Amino acid sequence: MNETxxxxxxxxxxxxTQAMRSTAETARQATIDQCQADAKAYTEKLHARTxxxxxxxxxxxxxxxxxxxxxxxxxxxxxxxxxxxxxxRRRELLEQELQEYNSAIELEIERVQSRVSAFEGEVxxxxxxxxxxxxxxxxxxxxxxMPDSPSFEEAERGSLAPDLRARxxxxxxxxxxxxxxxxxxxxxxxxxxxxxxxxxxxxxxVESTQVVVVGLVSVASIATSSASSxxxxx
Length: 234
Prior knowledge:
85% of the residues lie in helices and 0% in strands. α1 runs antiparallel to α3 (160-178) and α3 (160-178) packs antiparallel against α4 (191-231). It is rod-shaped, with a radius of gyration of 51 Å. It has helices at 2-131, 136-143, 160-178, 191-231. The protein is mostly helical. The protein has one domain.
């Protein structure tokens, strides 16, 4: 009786332990299956959201690319217009420079002719006085005082071309600064052309005024020099 009673609880406990192990194994597998199912559902959700967000990013990128292209076209047009305007201004400046230079050359030629006429008159007066002298000693002394021919050198009046070149470089260098700095980047194509055209027109007016004023001053200074030389020849 004692031996049989002792074996029955052990058998019961063994069966109970086996049943618990089986239940635990089933629970473990169910937990793993549930975790995998949750992970799969979450992954699918991530893929779906990634596709939507990627499509949104592509759409935004395409919009930016389109805006950049529009901005590039506007910038190229602005640069083309500004290039043509600056070339036109430079050619107008060349015409003004040539007119000023030719006027200065004509004044210089008149100054030379005036000096030649004055020297011829001085020589004629000298020889008239010399021809009236009969004393050889006095004649020789007077002959030694014969007027010297005036020299005609570029250094006397200075070269006008470097002055014109320096003023031209100053005007052309100030021209981009006078123009409004164009906006850069997409979205600036609407504002850039109007401001650029207004600034270019203003810069052209300033350049024309500067050239005319400088030309008048140069011609006036050369005319003054010619008048002084005609009165007091060398």
